[in-house]
Amino acid sequence: MIKNYGLKFDIQKPEDYVFGANLPMEEINPSGDWSEFLPVKEFQNLNNIETYACVTFTILNCIEILIKKQYGIEKNYSERFLAAVSGTKEGGNSPQVVAEFLRKIGVVPQELWPFDVEINTFEKFYSSVSPKLYELAKEFNNEWEFKHEYVPTNHEAISKALKCSPLLISVPAWFERDGKYYRPEGFTDNHATTMIKERKEEFSRVFDSYDSPHIKDIEWGVLPMVVKRFYIKKKDTKEEKVYWFIEIWRNILKAFREIVIINTK
To answer: 256 falls in which pLDDT band (50, 70, 90)?
Structure first.
């Protein structure tokens, strides 16, 4: 029997964002190699629980990597929270659904709703989320502007998108030969994972949430069936706006004083 790791496919809608048409084409990492910005290693099957939450783990991995690259900040958000509020559970979820829940509802830090050794059953992982956590999750959207878009599933588009963010890609999990993973003939992708690097004509490298090793290389000829790129920017807080307003006026007054001094000499 083919194992389901938690990936469901979306029916793409006309209003859904598509790479190159909606979000800024900002090359945050021109090398396309995100290896030095990886977050904490976390397993979606910790304690031998199948959470079916590969999509959630992948999206939050991408976001945490982006934040670390752009701002030098280490973040660790709660996969358990986002998986639960997005309705994942048995059978998994789709990238569009989970990303939209993150965009609209937010997410809490890992320490507020952890997945640790005490969460040792499927029921505990998906236990009810309190209204207080929903309130706290809004802080994510108060701090960050988050957006996402589909990427065409060809090498050229994927290479361009990989310079803008680490990518959610679908893969056939897990069939190995000669140190790389491949897609058996007729096999449909059944897992979402985080693409962090490519070596053209050789492999695509992923940071995975399922079993060791976390780093896996996929044969170059294996194109994903779905790809997502992400965008996140830190919002200006009221305090930051006040600070910059004061700084601007300080600079204006300083320049004015210098002009006055020069004219009085």
So the answer is: low
Helix (H) or strand (E) holding 160: helix 155-162
Contact 54, 193 (CB under 8 A): yes
Angle between helices 131-143 and 95-105 (to 10 degrees): 90
Mean pLDDT of 135-142: 98
DSSP string, 87-155: T-STT-B-HHHHHHHHHHH---BGGGS--STT--SHHHHTPPPPHHHHHHHHHHHHHEEEEEEE--SSH
User: And the tokens for 56?
Assistant: 């959630």
**H or E element at residue 252:** helix 238-264
Domain ranges in the chain?
35-234, 236-265
- What pTM did the predictor assign? 0.88
Specify the CATH number of the domain 35-234: 3.90.70.10
Both structure tokens of 181? 């993973």
What are the tens digits of pLDDT across the range 69-119?
999 999 999 999 999 999 999 889 999 999 999 999 999 999 999 999 999
For residue 109, the model assigns a pLDDT of: 98
Q: How far apart are CA 60 and CA 51, in angstroms?
A: 15
Strand, coil or helix: 84:
helix
Q: Residue 98 — left, alpha, or beta (φ > 0 → left; ψ -120 to 50 → alpha)?
A: alpha
